[in-house]
Amino acid sequence: MDTQEKIMEINQPIHFKDLRLVCSCSDDFLVNDKEFQQCLKGCKWSADGLSILTNSEDRRLRIFNIETDEIDQCKKQLRKVNEIKEGGTIYDYVWYPNTVQKSDNVKLILSTSSRSPIHLWNSVDGQLEATYRVYDHVDEVAHVNSLCFNWSGEEIYCGSYGKLNIFRTDRPGREFIEISTKTHLHRSIISTIAMNPVDKSIFAVGTYSKDIGIYGGNQLMCILRGHKSGITQLQFSPDGLKLYSGSRKGDNDIVCWDLRNVGQTLYSAERTVTTNQRICFDISSDGQYLVSGNCTGEISTWKLDQNIEKSDGVESVLTLNSKIPVHNDCVNGVSLHPTLPLLATASGQRHNEENDEDEQLILKDTDISLKLWEII
Description:
Blueprint: H1 3-6, E1 19-25, E2 40-45, E3 51-56, E4 60-68, E5 76-85, E6 90-95, E7 108-113, E8 118-122, E9 128-132, E10 134-135, E11 141-142, E12 146-149, E13 155-160, E14 163-168, E15 176-180, E16 190-195, E17 202-207, E18 212-216, E19 219-224, E20 231-236, E21 242-247, E22 253-258, E23 264-270, E24 281-283, E25 289-293, E26 298-303, E27 320-325, E28 331-336, E29 342-347, H2 356-365, E30 370-375
Antiparallel strand pairs: 1-30, 2-3, 3-4, 4-5, 6-7, 7-8, 8-9, 10-11, 12-13, 13-14, 14-15, 16-17, 17-18, 18-19, 20-21, 21-22, 22-23, 24-25, 25-26, 26-27, 28-29, 29-30
């Protein structure tokens, strides 16, 4: 059965005993520009599970579909169907959330990059659909650092230094609602935004000053503090009762916050983060598993239904379910398929080059690739 046909099946449970490599690609990321080191910066499944989106150091978004190999019908391959170039370093990128698009020829991607406005792209033909502009205190166009659609796709939430801006998706331009975060969140950059999947009025923002703000109806409700480094990712559990947060170099823990008892942590999960880049994690759609990349070339998985014994004054640590090698370099991207037992991983990082001997070692250890795995 073709992968795209299987996507129409009902959700299948996953167990994370092991992974089987389905297909991979690396040639599509090769560049001839010697001014920078190419590496991937994450990967994301589309809402319908038909496409994978990647971000990379060369300021390009690439869209891949899974297709049957023309020579060997039993094999699958990742085929690049489009490539979108931004004007600067891409800070964030998201798929439009609805699986039902306006037409078969429109599949939307939102991106933000350095010194540029927010762009809404059609991933099918690579054309620019709309532009949204945030302005700074001197009325010049300013870039934003984080993006998120609300659950209906009708609004766009944008985070930047000391503020949140909310656009109507159907109203491009400079018309927005602005929420200042400078007073309560330490005048810091809003680095990540997540929407609660159950209570649609609640969302969370993370900052590089280590703070997490929980908002309801665009009003700040509470602040969560406890991370040792800047927040790089937030994700709610499927039931909306827990919030998971991850940070960059200096803090290896993914922390689970109990939203029924605000300010309290349920447990943490230990991974390896040795750089300031975003090392992504993801939660299965049934809420049973947490999976994260590591700077060691491995992914770590944890079962989320295990009983956690709490001790007074001692933070509970989630027992590791498995650690599986998947790349020869830092695994910065992990994305679970919305319905099937499939995992996409992306790898790469910047390496310091000092001499020819170090450069040869770097080339040997460098892995810039996108891989698709079957979870078994």
